[in-house]
Amino acid sequence: MKTMIFGAGSDLGVHIDGAHLGPVQLMNDLKSFYTGESMQFIQDADIIKSRNLSDRRKNEYEVEKFNTKLYKEMVEKIKDGFFPILIGGDHSVVVASALASAKVNTDIGIIWIDAHTDYNTFDSTVTGNLHGLPLAAINGYNQEMTVYHDGKNIQTSRTVIVGARSIDPAEKEILKYSGVTVFSTEDIEEKGVEAIMEQAFEIAGYKTKGIHVSYDLDVIDPDIAPGVSIPEFDGITEEEAMKINEIIIKHMKQIVSFDLVEFNPLRDVNRKTEQIALNILAQIIKAVENKGKFERTIY
Fold this sequence. Notes:
Helices cover 38% and strands 16% of the residues. It is α/β, with parallel strands linked by helices. Strands 2-1-3-8-7-4-5-6 form an eight-stranded parallel sheet, with helices on both faces.
């Protein structure tokens, strides 16, 4: 199957700089083995990014403009038969990728692998960092962030968060009545990665036409993967992170789109996070290519 890598070089959704450089670095690393097509979306260098912590809608216009362009290009490439792999950038860019996939495929589920639930609204957010709102937007909240989308939103009942360990109090209240399934790092420790991920695929894949997977590197403990903008301690191990990838690959027939986000090379140490990110991407790219071969053989 044809892959298309989209490098979404934006960190407009967070007050910390550096995540916009992640896609540039990772896509440069991928040149050694990736032979498929790719497309770069780079943050406008002339933008003066707001860092005002009292502003609950920081860089809203700039994020919307960036995501509108990304969304339109992704919709067209998915229609052309490409499997989209998005490399972020902060997690706000995933509003474009997930909804582009939902636009073309319709009735899809989503698995959100992240230390944060990213389920704030403009009213509930404490920081005003828009990378804390994208999953809620994908589910139909925060519609100001999705004005470019004219398809279905992803249902909350088909939305699963894996690895959460930092949830704002207001987010907890929203999630409580949302229908979203949340598995914490404590759940992973108690039940094991495989059991949690199999449950996630069962929920996200129930009567859907595919699953979008969004993998945030901050789900990994920062002692192991320090190169992220908002680290949260007591995360999963590298072995658990790669086990998650293994299970994703096992279910590749169900997956219609994939993100890897929040690599911040300015915060990495000895390229530890970069190497983990490359391992994840290399495995996913190979699995997508094999998926195409398998489907053609069956046909």
